[in-house]
Amino acid sequence: FRAINKEEKFHFPKDFLFGTASSAYQYEGAYLTDGKSLSNWDVFTEIPGKIEDGSNGKVAIDHYHRYPGDLDLLKDLGVDSYRFSLSWARILPRGRFGDVNMEGINHYNRVINAVLERGMEPFVTLTHYDIPQELEVRYRSWLSPQIREDFVHYAEICFQYFGDRVKFWTTFNEPNVQVLNSYRTGEYPPSRCSKPFGNCTRGNSDIEPLVAAHNIIRSHLAAVYTYRMKYQEEQRGKIGLVMSANWFEPVSDSLADRLAAERALAFYLTWFLDPVVYGRYPKEMQEILGEDLPEFTKDDLKLSKNGLDYIGINQYTGRYAKDCLHSACEPGKGGSRVEGFVNNHALKDGLALGEPTSISWLNVYPQGMEKVLMYATERYKNIPLYVTENGYGENSTGALLNDHRRIKYMSSYLDALKRAMRKGAHVRGYFTWSLLDNFEWVYGYTLRFGLYHVDFDTLERTPRLSASWYKNFIVKNRAQSKDDDA
Ligand code: PNW
Protein backbone atom coordinates (compact mmCIF):
# COMPACT_ATOMS: atom_id res chain seq x y z
CA PHE A 1 0.00 0.00 0.00
CA ARG A 2 1.17 3.41 -0.86
CA ALA A 3 0.45 6.16 1.62
CA ILE A 4 -1.80 8.76 0.04
CA ASN A 5 0.15 11.92 -0.19
CA LYS A 6 -2.12 14.89 0.39
CA GLU A 7 0.20 17.00 -1.70
CA GLU A 8 -0.55 14.83 -4.74
CA LYS A 9 -4.28 14.90 -4.19
CA PHE A 10 -4.58 18.66 -4.36
CA HIS A 11 -5.98 20.10 -7.58
CA PHE A 12 -6.61 23.71 -8.43
CA PRO A 13 -10.27 24.38 -9.26
CA LYS A 14 -11.02 24.75 -12.96
CA ASP A 15 -11.82 28.46 -12.81
CA PHE A 16 -8.62 29.31 -10.89
CA LEU A 17 -6.79 32.21 -12.56
CA PHE A 18 -3.04 32.09 -13.05
CA GLY A 19 -1.56 35.37 -14.16
CA THR A 20 1.06 38.06 -13.87
CA ALA A 21 0.71 41.60 -12.50
CA SER A 22 1.96 45.03 -13.57
CA SER A 23 1.14 48.72 -13.11
CA ALA A 24 0.85 51.71 -15.43
CA TYR A 25 3.59 53.95 -14.07
CA GLN A 26 6.04 51.09 -13.71
CA TYR A 27 5.51 49.71 -17.23
CA GLU A 28 4.03 52.19 -19.70
CA GLY A 29 6.38 55.14 -20.16
CA ALA A 30 4.93 57.45 -22.87
CA TYR A 31 4.54 59.96 -20.08
CA LEU A 32 3.04 62.76 -22.16
CA THR A 33 1.82 60.78 -25.15
CA ASP A 34 -1.71 61.10 -26.57
CA GLY A 35 -2.94 63.75 -24.20
CA LYS A 36 -1.78 62.28 -20.90
CA SER A 37 -1.13 64.89 -18.20
CA LEU A 38 1.51 64.82 -15.49
CA SER A 39 0.89 62.41 -12.67
CA ASN A 40 2.08 62.81 -9.09
CA TRP A 41 4.88 60.31 -9.87
CA ASP A 42 6.00 62.25 -12.97
CA VAL A 43 6.44 65.30 -10.76
CA PHE A 44 7.91 63.51 -7.76
CA THR A 45 10.62 61.67 -9.70
CA GLU A 46 11.97 65.03 -10.88
CA ILE A 47 12.97 65.94 -7.31
CA PRO A 48 16.65 65.12 -6.82
CA GLY A 49 17.38 62.40 -4.31
CA LYS A 50 13.96 60.77 -4.28
CA ILE A 51 14.78 57.80 -6.55
CA GLU A 52 17.80 55.65 -5.82
CA ASP A 53 19.29 55.79 -9.31
CA GLY A 54 17.86 59.20 -10.19
CA SER A 55 15.58 57.60 -12.79
CA ASN A 56 11.90 57.98 -13.59
CA GLY A 57 9.05 56.38 -15.54
CA LYS A 58 9.09 58.68 -18.58
CA VAL A 59 10.00 55.75 -20.81
CA ALA A 60 9.91 52.90 -18.28
CA ILE A 61 9.78 49.72 -20.39
CA ASP A 62 7.66 51.36 -23.08
CA HIS A 63 4.76 48.99 -22.55
CA TYR A 64 2.49 51.75 -23.91
CA HIS A 65 3.87 51.00 -27.37
CA ARG A 66 5.07 47.45 -26.89
CA TYR A 67 1.97 45.95 -25.27
CA PRO A 68 1.10 43.69 -28.26
CA GLY A 69 4.44 41.91 -28.04
CA ASP A 70 4.27 41.78 -24.26
CA LEU A 71 0.82 40.22 -24.43
CA ASP A 72 2.19 37.65 -26.86
CA LEU A 73 4.75 36.72 -24.22
CA LEU A 74 1.92 36.31 -21.72
CA LYS A 75 -0.04 34.15 -24.11
CA ASP A 76 3.01 32.01 -24.62
CA LEU A 77 3.35 31.65 -20.84
CA GLY A 78 -0.16 30.23 -20.90
CA VAL A 79 -1.63 32.46 -18.20
CA ASP A 80 -5.37 32.93 -17.79
CA SER A 81 -5.30 36.57 -16.83
CA TYR A 82 -3.29 39.79 -17.01
CA ARG A 83 -3.46 42.16 -14.06
CA PHE A 84 -2.60 45.76 -14.98
CA SER A 85 -3.58 49.26 -13.94
CA LEU A 86 -4.98 52.24 -15.80
CA SER A 87 -3.32 55.62 -15.70
CA TRP A 88 -5.91 58.06 -14.33
CA ALA A 89 -3.97 60.95 -15.90
CA ARG A 90 -4.39 59.38 -19.36
CA ILE A 91 -8.15 59.04 -19.02
CA LEU A 92 -8.93 62.23 -17.09
CA PRO A 93 -5.87 64.47 -17.39
CA ARG A 94 -7.50 67.09 -15.16
CA GLY A 95 -9.69 64.85 -13.06
CA ARG A 96 -13.29 66.02 -12.93
CA PHE A 97 -12.10 69.55 -13.80
CA GLY A 98 -11.64 68.66 -17.46
CA ASP A 99 -12.78 66.36 -20.24
CA VAL A 100 -12.32 62.68 -20.88
CA ASN A 101 -9.25 62.14 -23.04
CA MET A 102 -10.52 59.91 -25.83
CA GLU A 103 -7.00 58.98 -26.91
CA GLY A 104 -6.47 57.48 -23.46
CA ILE A 105 -9.77 55.61 -23.71
CA ASN A 106 -8.88 54.32 -27.17
CA HIS A 107 -5.52 53.12 -25.95
CA TYR A 108 -6.97 51.06 -23.12
CA ASN A 109 -9.72 49.75 -25.41
CA ARG A 110 -7.00 48.40 -27.66
CA VAL A 111 -5.12 46.88 -24.71
CA ILE A 112 -8.25 45.24 -23.27
CA ASN A 113 -9.22 43.86 -26.68
CA ALA A 114 -5.72 42.55 -27.24
CA VAL A 115 -5.82 40.75 -23.88
CA LEU A 116 -9.18 39.17 -24.76
CA GLU A 117 -8.09 38.24 -28.28
CA ARG A 118 -5.29 36.21 -26.76
CA GLY A 119 -7.78 34.31 -24.63
CA MET A 120 -6.94 36.05 -21.36
CA GLU A 121 -9.04 37.84 -18.78
CA PRO A 122 -8.20 41.49 -18.02
CA PHE A 123 -7.91 42.09 -14.24
CA VAL A 124 -7.92 45.88 -14.01
CA THR A 125 -6.75 48.20 -11.22
CA LEU A 126 -8.08 51.76 -11.24
CA THR A 127 -5.38 53.27 -9.00
CA HIS A 128 -1.91 51.85 -8.48
CA TYR A 129 -0.35 54.85 -6.65
CA ASP A 130 -0.42 57.31 -9.60
CA ILE A 131 -3.01 60.11 -9.84
CA PRO A 132 -3.32 63.30 -11.94
CA GLN A 133 -1.07 65.92 -10.34
CA GLU A 134 -3.87 68.44 -10.69
CA LEU A 135 -5.73 66.76 -7.82
CA GLU A 136 -2.68 67.14 -5.61
CA VAL A 137 -2.28 70.80 -6.46
CA ARG A 138 -5.95 71.71 -6.17
CA TYR A 139 -6.85 70.09 -2.87
CA ARG A 140 -4.03 67.82 -1.63
CA SER A 141 -5.59 64.67 -3.10
CA TRP A 142 -6.14 61.96 -0.46
CA LEU A 143 -6.03 64.40 2.43
CA SER A 144 -9.26 65.97 1.21
CA PRO A 145 -12.72 64.38 1.26
CA GLN A 146 -13.14 65.95 -2.22
CA ILE A 147 -11.09 63.12 -3.70
CA ARG A 148 -14.07 60.80 -3.35
CA GLU A 149 -16.01 62.73 -5.98
CA ASP A 150 -13.07 62.60 -8.34
CA PHE A 151 -12.51 58.92 -7.77
CA VAL A 152 -16.15 57.98 -8.37
CA HIS A 153 -16.20 60.12 -11.52
CA TYR A 154 -13.09 58.34 -12.80
CA ALA A 155 -14.39 54.90 -11.85
CA GLU A 156 -17.67 55.54 -13.65
CA ILE A 157 -15.91 56.59 -16.84
CA CYS A 158 -13.98 53.31 -16.70
CA PHE A 159 -17.10 51.22 -16.06
CA GLN A 160 -18.86 52.99 -18.96
CA TYR A 161 -16.10 52.56 -21.50
CA PHE A 162 -14.54 49.26 -20.46
CA GLY A 163 -17.07 47.51 -18.24
CA ASP A 164 -18.63 45.50 -21.07
CA ARG A 165 -15.36 43.54 -21.29
CA VAL A 166 -13.67 43.91 -17.88
CA LYS A 167 -15.00 41.36 -15.38
CA PHE A 168 -12.50 42.05 -12.59
CA TRP A 169 -12.09 45.53 -11.17
CA THR A 170 -9.80 46.64 -8.35
CA THR A 171 -10.36 50.08 -6.88
CA PHE A 172 -6.99 50.50 -5.14
CA ASN A 173 -3.66 48.73 -5.08
CA GLU A 174 -2.11 48.52 -1.61
CA PRO A 175 -3.63 51.65 -0.10
CA ASN A 176 -1.93 50.69 3.17
CA VAL A 177 1.54 50.92 1.64
CA GLN A 178 0.49 54.01 -0.29
CA VAL A 179 -0.63 56.06 2.71
CA LEU A 180 2.23 54.95 4.98
CA ASN A 181 4.82 55.81 2.35
CA SER A 182 3.13 59.04 1.28
CA TYR A 183 2.20 60.49 4.66
CA ARG A 184 4.27 58.74 7.31
CA THR A 185 7.72 57.94 5.94
CA GLY A 186 7.53 60.44 3.10
CA GLU A 187 9.09 58.01 0.61
CA TYR A 188 6.28 58.43 -1.96
CA PRO A 189 4.64 61.61 -3.25
CA PRO A 190 3.62 64.03 -1.82
CA SER A 191 6.48 63.20 0.62
CA ARG A 192 4.81 64.20 3.80
CA CYS A 193 6.01 62.49 6.93
CA SER A 194 6.03 62.43 10.66
CA LYS A 195 8.98 62.10 12.98
CA PRO A 196 11.12 60.10 13.33
CA PHE A 197 10.87 59.16 9.67
CA GLY A 198 12.90 60.77 6.97
CA ASN A 199 13.98 64.37 6.83
CA CYS A 200 10.54 65.72 6.91
CA THR A 201 9.96 69.33 6.52
CA ARG A 202 6.31 68.80 5.81
CA GLY A 203 3.60 66.79 7.41
CA ASN A 204 4.58 66.05 10.97
CA SER A 205 1.41 64.34 11.66
CA ASP A 206 0.42 60.97 12.93
CA ILE A 207 -3.03 61.86 11.74
CA GLU A 208 -2.43 62.32 8.01
CA PRO A 209 -2.08 58.60 7.18
CA LEU A 210 -5.35 58.01 9.03
CA VAL A 211 -7.12 60.78 7.15
CA ALA A 212 -5.82 59.62 3.77
CA ALA A 213 -6.81 56.04 4.57
CA HIS A 214 -10.27 57.20 5.57
CA ASN A 215 -10.72 59.09 2.32
CA ILE A 216 -9.53 56.07 0.35
CA ILE A 217 -11.95 53.75 2.16
CA ARG A 218 -14.84 56.17 1.52
CA SER A 219 -13.79 56.51 -2.13
CA HIS A 220 -13.68 52.74 -2.47
CA LEU A 221 -17.12 52.30 -0.90
CA ALA A 222 -18.69 54.96 -3.10
CA ALA A 223 -17.20 53.50 -6.29
CA VAL A 224 -18.37 50.00 -5.36
CA TYR A 225 -21.84 51.34 -4.59
CA THR A 226 -21.98 53.08 -7.97
CA TYR A 227 -20.89 49.88 -9.71
CA ARG A 228 -23.55 47.87 -7.90
CA MET A 229 -26.36 50.33 -8.55
CA LYS A 230 -25.68 51.21 -12.15
CA TYR A 231 -23.41 48.69 -13.85
CA GLN A 232 -22.96 45.37 -12.15
CA GLU A 233 -26.24 43.76 -13.08
CA GLU A 234 -25.64 44.30 -16.75
CA GLN A 235 -21.86 44.01 -16.86
CA ARG A 236 -21.60 41.09 -14.43
CA GLY A 237 -18.12 41.85 -13.12
CA LYS A 238 -16.57 41.65 -9.67
CA ILE A 239 -15.06 44.56 -7.79
CA GLY A 240 -12.56 44.37 -4.96
CA LEU A 241 -9.64 45.90 -3.11
CA VAL A 242 -5.98 44.80 -3.16
CA MET A 243 -4.01 44.99 0.07
CA SER A 244 -0.35 44.54 0.88
CA ALA A 245 -0.65 41.56 3.19
CA ASN A 246 2.70 40.79 4.71
CA TRP A 247 2.54 38.57 7.76
CA PHE A 248 3.76 39.45 11.26
CA GLU A 249 5.23 36.99 13.73
CA PRO A 250 5.82 37.83 17.39
CA VAL A 251 9.52 38.23 18.06
CA SER A 252 9.18 36.25 21.29
CA ASP A 253 6.61 34.01 22.95
CA SER A 254 5.66 36.67 25.46
CA LEU A 255 2.04 37.71 25.57
CA ALA A 256 3.10 41.31 24.93
CA ASP A 257 4.83 40.38 21.68
CA ARG A 258 2.00 38.13 20.58
CA LEU A 259 -0.42 41.00 21.07
CA ALA A 260 2.02 43.27 19.24
CA ALA A 261 1.88 40.95 16.20
CA GLU A 262 -1.91 41.18 16.25
CA ARG A 263 -1.73 44.96 16.52
CA ALA A 264 0.73 45.10 13.64
CA LEU A 265 -1.73 43.24 11.41
CA ALA A 266 -4.59 45.48 12.52
CA PHE A 267 -2.61 48.62 11.71
CA TYR A 268 -1.68 47.21 8.31
CA LEU A 269 -4.26 44.86 6.84
CA THR A 270 -7.55 44.93 8.71
CA TRP A 271 -7.21 48.74 8.91
CA PHE A 272 -8.85 48.87 5.46
CA LEU A 273 -10.63 45.53 5.23
CA ASP A 274 -12.62 45.72 8.49
CA PRO A 275 -14.25 49.05 7.57
CA VAL A 276 -15.10 47.82 4.08
CA VAL A 277 -16.55 44.52 5.31
CA TYR A 278 -17.80 45.37 8.80
CA GLY A 279 -18.12 49.14 8.81
CA ARG A 280 -15.62 49.78 11.61
CA TYR A 281 -11.89 50.02 12.23
CA PRO A 282 -10.27 47.07 14.03
CA LYS A 283 -10.54 47.23 17.81
CA GLU A 284 -6.75 47.39 18.25
CA MET A 285 -6.78 50.69 16.34
CA GLN A 286 -9.74 52.03 18.25
CA GLU A 287 -8.10 51.23 21.58
CA ILE A 288 -4.85 52.95 20.78
CA LEU A 289 -5.95 55.82 18.57
CA GLY A 290 -9.27 56.69 20.17
CA GLU A 291 -10.50 60.04 18.93
CA ASP A 292 -7.74 60.29 16.35
CA LEU A 293 -9.51 57.68 14.25
CA PRO A 294 -11.90 59.33 11.79
CA GLU A 295 -15.52 58.22 12.00
CA PHE A 296 -17.80 56.77 9.38
CA THR A 297 -21.13 58.43 8.69
CA LYS A 298 -24.42 56.55 8.66
CA ASP A 299 -24.31 56.61 4.86
CA ASP A 300 -20.84 55.12 4.80
CA LEU A 301 -22.04 52.31 7.02
CA LYS A 302 -24.87 51.49 4.66
CA LEU A 303 -22.39 51.19 1.80
CA SER A 304 -20.01 49.00 3.75
CA LYS A 305 -22.55 46.17 4.09
CA ASN A 306 -21.60 44.97 0.65
CA GLY A 307 -18.23 46.61 0.31
CA LEU A 308 -16.39 44.20 -1.97
CA ASP A 309 -16.70 41.00 -4.01
CA TYR A 310 -13.18 39.72 -3.42
CA ILE A 311 -10.06 40.58 -1.46
CA GLY A 312 -6.76 40.92 -3.31
CA ILE A 313 -3.77 39.75 -1.29
CA ASN A 314 -0.29 40.95 -2.22
CA GLN A 315 1.97 38.59 -0.30
CA TYR A 316 5.74 38.79 -0.46
CA THR A 317 7.26 38.47 2.97
CA GLY A 318 6.96 38.40 6.74
CA ARG A 319 8.30 40.52 9.59
CA TYR A 320 8.77 40.27 13.29
CA ALA A 321 6.64 42.40 15.58
CA LYS A 322 7.90 43.55 18.96
CA ASP A 323 5.94 45.20 21.68
CA CYS A 324 6.61 48.88 22.33
CA LEU A 325 3.58 49.49 24.44
CA HIS A 326 4.86 47.89 27.59
CA SER A 327 8.56 48.02 26.85
CA ALA A 328 10.93 50.51 25.31
CA CYS A 329 11.73 50.20 21.61
CA GLU A 330 11.66 52.19 18.40
CA PRO A 331 8.15 52.30 17.05
CA GLY A 332 8.12 51.25 13.42
CA LYS A 333 6.39 52.68 10.42
CA GLY A 334 3.30 50.58 10.96
CA GLY A 335 1.53 53.79 11.79
CA SER A 336 0.61 52.76 15.26
CA ARG A 337 3.17 54.70 17.33
CA VAL A 338 3.42 51.61 19.46
CA GLU A 339 4.91 48.53 17.95
CA GLY A 340 8.19 48.01 16.24
CA PHE A 341 8.64 45.77 13.26
CA VAL A 342 11.94 44.06 13.19
CA ASN A 343 12.82 43.22 9.62
CA ASN A 344 16.05 42.04 8.13
CA HIS A 345 17.76 45.30 8.85
CA ALA A 346 17.90 43.67 12.26
CA LEU A 347 19.77 40.72 10.80
CA LYS A 348 22.81 41.57 12.87
CA ASP A 349 20.72 40.99 15.98
CA GLY A 350 19.75 37.57 14.69
CA LEU A 351 16.18 38.78 14.35
CA ALA A 352 15.51 38.32 10.64
CA LEU A 353 12.41 36.28 9.92
CA GLY A 354 12.96 33.73 7.16
CA GLU A 355 15.78 33.86 4.66
CA PRO A 356 17.18 37.27 3.70
CA THR A 357 17.52 38.34 0.04
CA SER A 358 19.39 41.14 -1.71
CA ILE A 359 16.39 43.41 -1.04
CA SER A 360 16.14 44.90 2.45
CA TRP A 361 12.36 44.54 2.78
CA LEU A 362 12.11 41.09 1.24
CA ASN A 363 12.82 37.92 3.13
CA VAL A 364 11.64 34.48 2.15
CA TYR A 365 8.90 33.39 4.52
CA PRO A 366 6.36 31.22 2.67
CA GLN A 367 4.62 30.32 5.95
CA GLY A 368 3.33 33.90 5.88
CA MET A 369 1.41 33.14 2.67
CA GLU A 370 -0.38 30.21 4.26
CA LYS A 371 -1.07 32.09 7.48
CA VAL A 372 -2.43 35.27 5.95
CA LEU A 373 -4.72 33.33 3.60
CA MET A 374 -6.11 31.34 6.55
CA TYR A 375 -6.46 34.52 8.57
CA ALA A 376 -8.41 36.33 5.83
CA THR A 377 -10.58 33.26 5.20
CA GLU A 378 -11.54 33.09 8.88
CA ARG A 379 -12.04 36.80 9.41
CA TYR A 380 -13.92 37.53 6.19
CA LYS A 381 -15.81 34.24 5.90
CA ASN A 382 -17.07 33.69 2.40
CA ILE A 383 -15.29 36.45 0.54
CA PRO A 384 -13.10 34.97 -2.22
CA LEU A 385 -9.39 35.76 -2.17
CA TYR A 386 -7.04 36.38 -5.08
CA VAL A 387 -3.30 36.46 -4.55
CA THR A 388 -2.88 39.53 -6.73
CA GLU A 389 0.92 39.76 -6.27
CA ASN A 390 3.74 37.53 -5.15
CA GLY A 391 7.22 37.61 -6.54
CA TYR A 392 10.94 37.63 -6.04
CA GLY A 393 13.27 40.51 -6.79
CA GLU A 394 17.01 40.83 -6.92
CA ASN A 395 19.32 43.78 -7.19
CA SER A 396 20.70 44.19 -10.66
CA THR A 397 24.01 42.50 -9.99
CA GLY A 398 22.28 39.33 -8.88
CA ALA A 399 19.60 39.31 -11.53
CA LEU A 400 20.71 36.46 -13.70
CA LEU A 401 18.81 34.73 -16.46
CA ASN A 402 19.35 31.52 -14.55
CA ASP A 403 17.16 32.71 -11.69
CA HIS A 404 16.98 29.57 -9.59
CA ARG A 405 16.37 31.67 -6.47
CA ARG A 406 13.15 33.07 -7.99
CA ILE A 407 11.99 29.59 -8.94
CA LYS A 408 12.66 28.30 -5.45
CA TYR A 409 10.78 31.25 -3.96
CA MET A 410 7.75 30.87 -6.23
CA SER A 411 7.55 27.16 -5.78
CA SER A 412 7.69 27.41 -1.99
CA TYR A 413 5.03 30.15 -1.91
CA LEU A 414 2.76 28.21 -4.28
CA ASP A 415 3.14 25.17 -2.02
CA ALA A 416 2.09 27.36 0.91
CA LEU A 417 -0.88 28.59 -1.11
CA LYS A 418 -1.91 25.00 -1.83
CA ARG A 419 -1.63 24.12 1.87
CA ALA A 420 -3.97 26.99 2.70
CA MET A 421 -6.43 25.89 0.00
CA ARG A 422 -6.41 22.32 1.29
CA LYS A 423 -7.32 23.72 4.69
CA GLY A 424 -10.24 25.61 3.16
CA ALA A 425 -8.90 29.03 2.12
CA HIS A 426 -11.07 30.50 -0.63
CA VAL A 427 -8.30 31.32 -3.09
CA ARG A 428 -9.39 31.82 -6.71
CA GLY A 429 -6.24 33.09 -8.38
CA TYR A 430 -2.51 33.73 -8.24
CA PHE A 431 -0.64 36.52 -10.04
CA THR A 432 3.11 36.77 -9.99
CA TRP A 433 4.89 40.11 -9.88
CA SER A 434 5.98 40.47 -12.61
CA LEU A 435 6.18 39.45 -16.28
CA LEU A 436 8.98 41.98 -16.94
CA ASP A 437 11.64 43.90 -15.04
CA ASN A 438 10.31 47.43 -14.57
CA PHE A 439 10.53 50.75 -12.70
CA GLU A 440 10.54 49.71 -9.05
CA TRP A 441 9.33 52.98 -7.43
CA VAL A 442 11.96 54.53 -5.13
CA TYR A 443 14.46 51.84 -6.16
CA GLY A 444 14.23 52.97 -9.78
CA TYR A 445 15.67 50.35 -12.12
CA THR A 446 17.94 48.81 -9.50
CA LEU A 447 15.62 45.93 -8.58
CA ARG A 448 14.41 43.27 -10.98
CA PHE A 449 11.24 41.22 -10.44
CA GLY A 450 10.68 39.92 -13.98
CA LEU A 451 10.19 36.44 -15.34
CA TYR A 452 11.72 38.21 -18.33
CA HIS A 453 14.90 40.26 -18.15
CA VAL A 454 14.60 43.72 -19.69
CA ASP A 455 17.65 45.51 -21.03
CA PHE A 456 16.84 49.04 -19.89
CA ASP A 457 18.85 50.58 -22.76
CA THR A 458 17.56 48.59 -25.72
CA LEU A 459 14.32 47.53 -23.95
CA GLU A 460 14.85 44.02 -25.27
CA ARG A 461 13.01 41.30 -23.33
CA THR A 462 14.76 37.97 -22.65
CA PRO A 463 13.17 35.04 -20.82
CA ARG A 464 14.65 33.89 -17.55
CA LEU A 465 14.47 30.27 -16.45
CA SER A 466 11.52 31.19 -14.22
CA ALA A 467 9.41 31.98 -17.30
CA SER A 468 9.54 28.38 -18.52
CA TRP A 469 9.21 27.14 -14.95
CA TYR A 470 5.95 29.10 -14.46
CA LYS A 471 4.67 28.02 -17.85
CA ASN A 472 5.29 24.42 -16.93
CA PHE A 473 3.73 24.85 -13.51
CA ILE A 474 0.53 26.17 -15.08
CA VAL A 475 0.37 23.40 -17.69
CA LYS A 476 0.86 20.74 -15.05
CA ASN A 477 -1.73 22.17 -12.71
CA ARG A 478 -4.24 22.76 -15.47
CA ALA A 479 -3.87 19.18 -16.67
CA GLN A 480 -4.64 18.05 -13.14
CA SER A 481 -7.83 20.01 -12.92
CA LYS A 482 -8.91 18.43 -16.21
CA ASP A 483 -8.30 14.96 -14.78
CA ASP A 484 -10.73 15.87 -12.04
CA ASP A 485 -13.56 15.88 -14.54
CA ALA A 486 -12.73 12.44 -15.89
C1 PNW B 1 4.19 46.04 -4.36
N1 PNW B 1 6.64 45.40 1.60
O1 PNW B 1 4.56 46.87 -3.31
C2 PNW B 1 3.59 46.96 -5.41
O2 PNW B 1 2.21 46.73 -5.56
C3 PNW B 1 4.27 46.88 -6.74
O3 PNW B 1 3.97 48.06 -7.48
C4 PNW B 1 5.75 46.69 -6.56
O4 PNW B 1 6.47 46.79 -7.74
C5 PNW B 1 5.94 45.32 -5.94
O5 PNW B 1 5.29 45.27 -4.71
C6 PNW B 1 7.40 44.92 -5.71
O6 PNW B 1 8.02 45.81 -4.83
C7 PNW B 1 5.08 46.42 -2.11
O7 PNW B 1 6.93 46.28 2.41
C8 PNW B 1 5.34 47.38 -1.16
O8 PNW B 1 6.83 44.20 1.87
C9 PNW B 1 5.83 47.05 0.07
C10 PNW B 1 6.11 45.73 0.36
C11 PNW B 1 5.86 44.75 -0.57
C12 PNW B 1 5.36 45.10 -1.81
TrEMBL record:
Pfam families: Glyco_hydro_1
Alphabetical list of Gene3D superfamilies matching this protein: Glycosidases
GO BP terms in the entry: carbohydrate metabolic process
Domain of life: Eukaryota
Reaction it catalyzes: Hydrolysis of terminal, non-reducing beta-D-glucosyl residues with release of beta-D-glucose
MF terms in GO: coniferin beta-glucosidase activity
Keywords: Glycosidase, Hydrolase, Signal
Its EC number(s): 3.2.1.21
Family under the similarity heading: Belongs to the glycosyl hydrolase 1 family.
Protein name as catalogued: beta-glucosidase
Organism: Microthlaspi erraticum
